[in-house]
Amino acid sequence: MRRSIFTTIKRGIVFPCVSALCLAACNDKDAPLPDNTANLSAAELGLDESQTAKSFLVTLDRAAEEALTVTLEVANSGAAYGAQYTTLPPLNGGIITLSIPAGQTSAEVTVTKTGDALFEGTETVTFSIATASGDVVVGDRKTLLLTFGAIVSEGGTLTLQGGEGGANAINSVFVDFSTNEMVTAERKSWNFALYTGGRFAVLLNNTTGSTAVEATGGETVGTVIPSADSAVYAASLKIGMGAGSFDIVDDIAGDLDKSVIKEGKVYIVSLGDGQTPLYKVRATRKDANTYTMEYAPANSATISTVDAAINADCDFTYISIVEGKVVSVAPPKKKWDIEWTRATYKASATIPYIFSDFVIINYLNGVQAVQVDAATVSYETFAAADVSSLTFSSDIDVIGGNWRSTTGSGIYQDRFYAVKDPAGNVYKLRFLKFGVGSDGGVRGYPEIEYALVK
Amino acid sequence: MKKLFIYGVLLLCTVEALARQAAMDTVLTATIDEVVVTGQFVPQSLRSSLFKVKVIGSATLRQKAAVTPESALNTVMGIRLNNDMNTGETDFEIMGMSGQNVKVLLDGVPLVDRSSTRQCLSQLDVNTIARIEIVEGPMSVNYGADALAGVVNIITKQATPDAGRLSLSAKVQEESAGSEYSPFAGKGRHNENISAGYTFNKGFYVSAAFTRNAFGGWQGDLTGRKKQWHPKMQYLSGLKAGYSGAKTTVWYRLDYLNENILTEEDVNSVTNMTSDCEFITGRYTHLLQGGHTVSSRLRIDVAGSWQDYHRRTRTTLIHTDTGKRTLSLADGAQAQIDYSSLFGRLTGVWTASDVLSLQPGIEYHSTEGTGDRIDGTRAVTDAAVFVAAEYRPFRWLNIRPGVRSSHNSAYDAPPVTPSLNVKFRPCEAVDLRLSYGRGFRAPSLQELYYSFHDANHNIDGNPDLKAEDSDSYMASVTWRNRAAAVQLSSALSGFFNDFRNRISLVESYADAGLYTYYNIDRYRTVGLTLESGLQWAALQADVGVACVGRMNSYYGDAQYSTVEMSRYRFSPEISAGISWAPARVGTFSLFYKMNGARREYTLDGTDLKLLGIDAYHWLDVTLGRTLGAHWLVQAGVKNLLNVTTVRNTGGSDSPHDSGTGISHAGYGRSAFCAVIFTL
Fold this sequence. Notes:
The structure holds 2 protein chains of 2 kinds. By secondary structure, chain A is mainly beta. Helices cover 9% and strands 37% of the residues of chain A. Chain A is globular. The termini of chain A are far apart. Chain B is mainly beta. Chain B has a 22-stranded antiparallel barrel. A 5-stranded mixed β-sheet of chain B has the order 3-9-10-7-8. Chain B has a 3-stranded antiparallel β-sheet with strand order 4-5-6, with no helix packed on it. In chain B, 4% of the residues lie in helices and 57% in strands. Chain B has one domain: Beta Barrel (Maltoporin, Chain A).
């Protein structure tokens, strides 16, 4: 009697319960990781008369644990390898073999014109991804048409190479829609921007949250600041998360008259992004074409000097006082339309805040933009006829951070942008993914889509 | 019409007394007082207890037809529930104090939780609960840290004492979520339970229970895939084995929970992608308890527990055009949090003489946590010694002093925590209780070892934190008339709590721009409650009124001297419960709660404004009828007043949102029906 009841319990209750539990647990397998795709960095590039070489990347979605090999097939149309151009890595039997080391996400291919080769401007070379080793799958952007002449891009998609760091991505990326090109610059590679437009203006690095205050105790660049005073300066230079005021940063709308550093005065500067120590800095104009920067770490009396000759091709000449030299950051004046970067902006009218994924337009060179409501006209149907009803603006922050929310839903789907570039081309622009919400992207590698409208 | 009437009459079967469930607080056996165990030396009747204990007995649990333990408490005086729409969890507060100020116990053993919300309460199987005992006021001598505002003790069902008996019960309960419902799966609530137990001849018993608790979520006002209330699926299983003898009892219990809370995102029309985020929780609770009566004067009790809690965050991306699913690699899309705890307590009850009993005890509690932005793997160990005495010099006077001494590995635990409870009985009908207690709340693992540094956050824990401590005073007068026909009882009680060294997150003194935790705040709560009960034949009614005041921290602040303010901000509560069970008809129950408006002075920019949550009313109605000896059928409506959102201008404490302006109290009027089989 007892045994049969026990068996009944076992059979009738325990086994179904246990098996139901197992079922519940077993059905619960994780989905596989997304494919790691290999893509070319652009679909179309142009190598015009003024340039001798052009580079593009083969990118992976994420770094792999072992070294990978990617092969590109090359098809010529009117251009001859060797006679007119060479590639690095070299072409071998119609194939370029690239290797991406473990832990890296890209490899570069450079196309260089041969010596004094002449071009008509219509020769093209088509690169296409043929194979990829390991688990890598060939992605959507697998062909690149390189024209040996200037192009005006019809549009395409680009994945901006913000670099590691996620929300704190290490690079700023400048984008030129008409040539499908991106220029990346490490944010910490420069400390000051020297204005090349004929007047004195020295700007702090707004992409690292650099701040400055005028030296209050009569210090010169050679004064050693004791650590107690240094701590007081450090506290007054804090920015972010509610700290700081607009007095310690340059004007976020770009007005050069309201920038912090004035000629000849001594400032205590925080280089931003956690860089230490503080620096004492003094900037003057040696002559119309040269700035002189005197600088020293806060606790040092050794003054270093850099004489920086301005390069009028760009709006600013960038210098690094950490390296003590001029560095290249932004592309030439009319060669970029928007910059995607981490930037100092505002949380409110009185509190500065550092934004990730912030988009600045090249307002100094005639780039204008306007936000378009997707409810009135959708991105797909937006065409030349819709442009006339728009009022373009030259404000630096037209796009700004308005295209996304960094928590929750991510990219706002109810809007896109129309951008007029320095040449007058109008492109429609929207953001596809940037690694927030369910867009499937990676933070620091936003993907944009744009198309020539007019 | 006549046919219907005859049909109805035919349906009337003999009513089996609901007293089968428990000999506790049923309407039909009015002379037996409810037995309580929390904080007592030995199980006592509610009347004799020195503490003011609130009991939600099995009859009430059955009448409320609750599918989760926390929803069983939603009409209890002094308790407010908070539903978090982001995590899908419900936290609760007692007497205005929430989360880490309340300790949740399972058969006297503390349950482990992730961070400061008490989600353990919603992760227990309501079908295994015999009753819930709530003690308001600090129980720190017996139960140590985090029992500042009170203790909620879940008492599980014991085996039937009759040897050779197989007990079997099964339940199916179907509920709608507002107007959303689909049978047995998907929308609405679906709760199925099967339990069995067998008592062997020699006092051994074994029992097992399995429950599926499925909630399909509630869409609410949202469109697309998103739901206002997230779907939740729970599988709960439990096993208990023990021996109950004349002098010795010992039992072991294992509970396992698998819970999955699903958050569905809307489809991104540009990329044709969407995502599902799941919070998958596994919770193992091992409990071992025993007691041995050494002699007529000495009894020893042992309780031990090992608990393992882990919650995994899993985010899956779905391509809506191909149906392909992949794991998301976004920041924080996949995560894991682990907490485990080891607990042991040894107590003795020594009856020194007719007037004096002593209860000494020692306790050991170790908690370890990883994930949840805790810096590495951290463990906190607490060892304590406590002793309480009960001195009864006269029949009408009962004095219970107690003291506890704790030592903690991670923070400064208060070296001595005293308490004093006194009970007078000036006459047969009246009880007067006075109590004073010191309470303390331990800093959580997060407050000690937090590490959150990214582009926009710079927060560290503070390993040098001290415990928060409080002084609590309670006084209550209970009056009962013991007339045979109509029984009335009434209790008036007041409390005052003074909290010190409250832990708050503020900017670091040493490093501007870094935020960390400090013991800096002060807080006070004060309140008055009046609860009355009536029992007359088949009718049982309880009504309560409470007024809870929370300290206004801006009172007396010179900066705001122009604003007319009071020292405390009060909010009222009204609760009522009616149960009418005429023989051979069935049971009709009604539960009502009015949560009064609660507004406090908050800084809005530079102005001091009165912001907070509006009042709302909750009403549940249940009808029940037994059919034959084994079947019980119930039907009813929960949230009859159709409460969904309540306006909340107080906003949130989170710096991320400016406050959504609403609190989610419920998902609308829901109907339910349940069928219960008991062997």
